[in-house]
Amino acid sequence: MKLKYFLSFSAFILFVVNSVNAQQVAGKYAKEGYKLVWSDEFEKDGMPDAKNWTYEKGFVRNEELQWYQPENAFCKSGLLIIEARKEQKPNPLFEEGSSNWRKKSKNIEYTSACLITKGLQSFQYGRFEMRGRIDISAGLWPAFWTLGDNGNWPANGEIDIMEYYRGKLLANIASLGANKKPKWFSNTKSTEALGGKKWVAKFHVWRMDWDSEAISLYVDDLLLNKTPMAQLKNDDSTGINPFMQKHYILLDLAMGGLNGGDLNDTKFPNRMEVDYVRVYQK
Description:
Elements (H helix, E strand, L loop, with lengths): L1 H30 L3 E6 L13 E2 L10 E3 L4 E4 L2 E12 L16 E6 L1 E3 L5 E2 L2 E8 L6 E9 L9 E8 L2 E9 L5 E9 H4 L1 H5 L3 E7 L3 E6 L2 E7 L18 E9 L1 H4 L9 E12 L1
Parallel strand pairs: 3-6
Antiparallel strand pairs: 1-18, 2-7, 4-5, 5-6, 5-18, 7-17, 8-17, 9-14, 9-18, 10-11, 10-17, 11-12, 12-13, 14-15, 15-16
């Protein structure tokens, strides 16, 4: 009973601190002309708010190891938890002798979740923020990113506000390049240079400032990537700029695949924790 009381009191203190911090940030951003237009603070325990989030399901991209399923995402004590689990279950896509990466394995070995606001919440321009904590164990690939509402990837545009794998944070922007391949504008920062395990043990704020002139990506106010909008047009006959449209938000914890690397001795279950996601606009 005492433990339950302590946990409830701790959650209340966290709520109060977050409320004060939110007011301070809102005041600071108001001076820059920004107003909060949407947020999810994940204050209610249970499943994430269905008005804001839906889910990707199954094996989705990049030959990643995880099977995405909604039950790996839940809210607790003011945080969204995206949990990567090592659990075996039959692969419903399995086909004997198939070379397709989604179908060739008889069993699913890992599960996780990818939450998306597609069809529910999307925005053009503004300040996008996520406060969260990630794990940098081998093979993990957490991300906070956006995709354009219209067009097929990469012609719809991709912005990786927070992405991590193999010892580095990535701040990426992609549009359509030559031969229908993605054209990347990318910068990285070693987590070791930021402070290693001590740095990663703390929560950090990843931010995008996006307007008609440029896209700027930050972590804790450290600028990682600033790319002029003029450079981001698709290299095809349309010449469309995929960042002059609304984008929706994705949060996920992937594993392995083309970039994540081997899991080695990574322990499970493993987590990506999100305190809030907010969008401000002028």
